[in-house]
Design a protein that fits this description.
Length: 294
């Protein structure tokens, strides 16, 4: 750890946390971590200081700022809403792919969808939520699983809600255009039937697009959701939250689940808090309400 020179604004010397072109101190890191936690529920351990510096240095350059102290003043100020959103986008990880953790889609196809789609053909509704959908690959994987059983599903009351805090990822999901390497996990017959080849990649077809609605939603904010879901995918999302926040999110899912609903979570996640007592495992990182088993 070295001492930084006096900053352009003449502030006293403070310990430089990460070496680089911008002055970045432990106090700056704590301010950014607290702001991210308040805005998105994401906990940043001290070990992430270098990551924070590298990702936000780009924002400082774009804004013409000289040090992280000025950036912290901006994102915590009354007029910092837009930049706080950009900061969240810069510091969150959007790791996703089509049919990631394929056992969940096998479970959905074999155990959950058959009775639901039969119900839809009789006039019922099917609702599935992809919470933390990133750029839509998970939501469209759900849609492809539905279409594999019911090719005309979009003509019935079958819908997938895809939500994320990152508006840029939502825009990519709505556009539905994916590079060649991203669609490799999709079976060739699915790809040829439900996507269109374009110069820049593969575009989601209209029947698949009609199944999915993309909306902005912060999992630690307000949930303007009134319907209940027969399946909720919230995978590799709460891992970035502290246990108390994870517990709150799982508890909020409960009243939004139909009696026979399933909850799919990430491979390194476990349902915790009060919700754990109300849920039983139904497969690998797959849960259902205990009341449905009585």
């Amino acid at each position: 750890m070295t001492l930084a020179p006096i900053t352009p604004k003449g502030e006293a010397r403070r310990a430089q946390l990460v070496e680089g072109e911008f002055h970045f101190t432990a106090e700056d890191f704590r301010t950014i971590a607290a702001t991210l936690h308040t805005a998105a529920g994401i906990a940043l351990p001290d070990s992430k200081a270098t990551l924070v510096y590298s990702r936000l240095a780009k924002r400082l350059r774009a804004l013409g700022l000289e040090c992280f102290r000025d950036y912290c003043a901006l994102v915590t100020g009354d007029h910092g809403l837009d930049e706080r959103q950009r900061m969240i986008v810069a510091l969150t990880t959007n790791v996703t792919r089509f049919f990631r953790e394929p056992h969940h889609f096998d479970h959905l196809r074999e155990k959950v969808l058959p009775p639901l789609l039969a119900q839809a053909k009789r006039g019922g509704e099917v609702r599935i939520w992809s919470a933390g959908c990133s750029n839509g690959q998970e939501a469209y994987s759900i849609g492809l699983t539905i279409l594999s059983l019911m090719p005309d599903a979009a003509d019935y009351d079958v819908r997938i809600l895809a939500t994320d805090i990152d508006t840029q990822m939502l825009a990519e999901g709505r556009a539905g255009l994916y590079a060649e390497q991203l669609v490799e996990p999709i079976p060739a017959d699915f790809r040829s039937r439900w996507f269109h080849r374009e110069p820049d990649g593969w575009r989601v077809s209209e029947p698949l697009r009609r199944l999915v609605t993309f909306n902005e939603l912060n999992l630690i904010g307000q949930w303007p959701i009134k319907r209940r879901f027969q399946a909720i995918f919230c995978r590799n999302v709460v891992i970035y939250f502290e246990e108390e926040t994870q517990s709150q999110v799982f508890s909020r899912f409960l009243p939004l689940m139909t009696p026979d609903a399933r909850l799919y979570i990430g491979h390194s996640e476990r349902v915790c808090g009060p919700a754990a007592a109300q849920m039983a495992t139904d497969g690998v990182t797959t849960y259902r309400l205990r009341s449905a088993l009585q």
